[in-house]
Design brief:
The chain is mainly α. The protein is about 60% helix and about 0% strand.
Length: about 180
């Protein structure tokens, strides 16, 4: 179990892309990141100093060398039965599930963004197809922007905003 974890740890530590991570770290956190990487590298060096699997014990050598009968057998039995308790991994599946959800959200965002891009490109093409304002007549402007243009059937007075139009003058006190 512990050896399995050690192999997993070695793979996990080797799989870290430090340069990609460094690109995402804000300038204010660079020193903390450098300290974290140094500590991780120190742990990796210490871990790599030890073999991946513990050396095998030559039990037959000790059985021949130690005169007390059954002592080596007892030690061998206890050694092989000894298991170092290691906390069970409860979080990897949660992290992987959350990662899948994030990837789904990213895909949805990309799809929505691509739809917005298509809509924006259509609007750009429509605007490019219009006459330049400098060449437009009032009728061209009315056809291109009906909600912004002045309605010739219902003329307005300057400054052409609703508040100053004669139909809105009703009820206002007159200053004579």
């Amino acid at each position: 179990m512990i050896l399995e974890y050690a192999r997993m740890s070695r793979r996990a530590i080797k799989a870290i892309n430090w340069s990609a991570l460094a690109e995402k770290i804000p300038e204010t956190e660079k020193t903390a990141f450098a300290a974290f990487k140094a500590k991780s590298d120190q742990y990796l060096r210490r871990m790599n100093m030890n073999p991946e699997t513990p050396p095998k014990i030559n039990w037959s050598y000790y059985k021949k060398s130690i005169p007390v009968p059954g002592l080596v057998d007892k030690f061998q039995k206890e050694y092989e039965a000894f298991k170092i308790p290691y906390p069970e991994d409860k979080y990897t599946s949660e992290v992987e599930a959350e990662e899948k959800q994030v990837h789904i959200k990213i895909e949805e965002f990309m799809k929505e963004s691509n739809e917005r891009i298509v809509t924006a490109n259509k609007e750009i093409d429509r605007i490019k197809s219009l006459l330049p304002f400098s060449e437009m007549t009032m009728e061209d402007f009315r056809d291109a922007y009906p909600d912004l243009a002045i309605n010739s059937d219902k003329p307005t007075v300057w400054p052409h905003i609703p508040e100053v139009q004669p139909e809105n003058e009703k009820g206002r006190p007159t200053h004579h």
